[in-house]
């Protein structure tokens, strides 16, 4: 085993300082809307990669390139990239119009006095199908504002319900970036991670639903939101969800979703053949940044590992966190810290993956539980930070409809992320962890 070398962790520190520093300047000094998301994250990672290359002078540049190639060429990394591409194509094919159909259908069959809680359920289903919390919030927040106007509920509690439900699906969806990154980074099956995660997420969702009902029922003033809907377009989403739960190979599942989506979209006249092809390309291109982050982080981590950085970090973690429970908590706090610094839960998982994988081996933790903890804690922190894309998109959507609310108005109503954290801690400290025998 290589001797630990804390200096080898410098590239990670450089990335965090640059990204967080520029993010604060863009968002709070220059007042640039979505400031954190205007930073070219690929460029910042390239700077970190340059720092990693400069270190460890005993290796020449060709040896370092070979190490980077070995890191990027890991089968799990290649699988992750291919799944990213196919998931992007799937979303490009089916579009996002079906989300509104799901929302209006459910609102039409549930009594309007329960609408604030129903928004949470709708957002859970839509994000589970779409695999994107930001996309869900973009689509459902205007509906949430309309529900608040019609029914008398406060706008903050309606937006909080939408954001909570969006994070539920982000954490569990088979085509979510976070699920793909966590599962492929740890080398576990998506269905196994889903089952592990669901045990944590379900209690949190139920408590959230009850809290929302209790707090909203007394403020109902009558009125409902009624719009037309077309449910046939949700069939591809259902097929992908069921195929993933059953355990069909993820590539086969996504291919089924793409083919069924293309047939339905063309047969219903929702899109022209040429436009469908263009949307496929746009969907795949939309995954470019995420794919490049996965590649660059893999290269950086290969150099850090060779230089003894991970050994140094693991030695420190073992001193602070004892036993399996301590290891699980350490993983959660590690990815949480990465998320606070990057305001991006997918990037946080990709960065934490290699360290968490070695922690899992040392602490005797299953790969599926490791993937579950990484995804869950990243979603907890991403769901509540006031400068995350989820919050900023929700505030922007509300403002476009004439409702000026602040992040601090909404944060008290983000019941799901808080309950998810509580549920996670209960499972860490009070549910016996299995030895790392099964994946």
Largest sheet: none
Distance, first to last CA: 25 Å
Q: Could you estimate the helical fraction of the residues in percent?
A: over 70%
- Computed structural class: mainly alpha
Q: Low-confidence segments, ≥5 residues, pLDDT <50?
A: 435-439
Oligomer: single chain
Question: What features would you describe in this structure?
Answer:
The protein is mainly α. The chain has one domain. Helix content is 75%, strand content 0%. Helix 11 (235-246) packs antiparallel against helix 12 and helix 16 (323-342) packs across helix 18 (367-382).
Summarize the structure.
Helix content is 75%, strand content 0%. With 439 residues, it is an all-alpha fold.
Label this structure with key terms:
single chain; 439 residues; mainly alpha; disordered C terminus
